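Hi all, long-time lurker, first post. I run a small reading group and we've been trying to get comfortable going from sequence to structure in the token notation. Rather than ask abstract questions, I figured I'd post a concrete chain and ask someone more experienced to write out its structure so we can walk through it together at our next meeting. Sequence below, copied exactly:
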Amino acid sequence: MGRKKAPAQRPRDKTAVELTLSPVLANARLRFPLDEELKIRQLEKLQAEATRERATSEERSVFSHSGDYRSVTLRGVRHTLTFRQAHMVQILHDAQQSGNPEIAIATILEQLGTPNARWHDTFKSNLEAKKALIGPGERKGTLRLKF
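-- Answer (accepted) --
Happy to help. Here is the structure in token form:
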């Protein structure tokens, strides 16, 4: 008796690349010829943008603020700030959004218009907000937001 032959398998197309995208882009599976690497790079860039957007939306759920930063909410706890405190939080938030979350204390004080003051004095009247919102940076003499 003869042996049955296994069904013939389709040869794999060696000139194509499979790309699986993240769930952000609806789990799309796409095939591109290798010579279309530009399209692959464009899709990777889209995926990176979607990841950044997701991180931004997660940040919004953790931290939100009024237009002038006088009222900020961090993890569901609302803090009411003075003008100078709000300005300091805004400076730190702008730095974080730019991808460089740590700022030198001297730079912050210059932007506040009080280069000879101590930053702690800015939050002297609101220690709870200071403890919740602002933390030390990795390097001495720098600050960052705590999220």
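A couple of things your group might point at:
The mean pLDDT is 79.
The radius of gyration is 26 Å.
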